[in-house]
Amino acid sequence: MEPRFNFFASPLAAKIVKHLNSAVKATEAAGLAPEIPNLVLLRASQINGCGFCTDMHYKDAVHAGEDPVRLNMVAAWHEATVFTDAERAALALTEEGTRIADARTGVDDDVWESARKQFSDAELAGLISVIAVINAYNRLNVLAGTPAGSYQPGQFA
């Protein structure tokens, strides 16, 4: 499968991606447990149907030591027993922040309060930012038709 648009070959796109990568780097200062961003990146990518990002974030999480069983359960996290309260709050916020147009009020107050109980202000800033940035990446890759399946961990290091 060929991409509709090779985002990686465009000098302007490279500048845009560089700035998105800077935003991702800044979220590392939030102090989130490493499992949280891994789960968030995977879940938003699944919801948005971004095969490239789903492939990448699954493989990166496994490479970082995450349990593949837990990653396989991300799509059905509501019923899964393998996630902590903090992880569940992050996944709920990810779903509502990704499906923002599906809710009359955006993010439900109960979902927000659950996240608020689990995370500090810095962690919430990082979590919200990770959700926003992965949604941007998902849209870039879906719009460009970036093929999935060949990503190798560390490919963009």
UniProtKB/TrEMBL annotation:
Domain Carboxymuconolactone decarboxylase-like: start-end pairs: 14-96
- Superkingdom of origin: Bacteria
Q: Which Pfam families match?
A: CMD (PF02627)
Do you know which InterPro entries this protein is assigned to?
AhpD-like, AhpD_core, CMD-like
Per its UniProt record, what Gene3D superfamilies does this chain match? Answer: AhpD-like (1.20.1290.10)
Name residues in a coiled coil. none
Instruction: Tell me which PANTHER family the record gives.
Output: 4-CARBOXYMUCONOLACTONE DECARBOXYLASE FAMILY PROTEIN (AFU_ORTHOLOGUE AFUA_6G11590), BLL7811 PROTEIN
NCBIfam families assigned: ahpD_dom
What name does this protein carry?
Answer: Carboxymuconolactone decarboxylase family protein
What is the originating organism of this protein? Myceligenerans pegani
The uppermost taxa in this organism's lineage are: Bacteria, Bacillati, Actinomycetota, Actinomycetes, Micrococcales
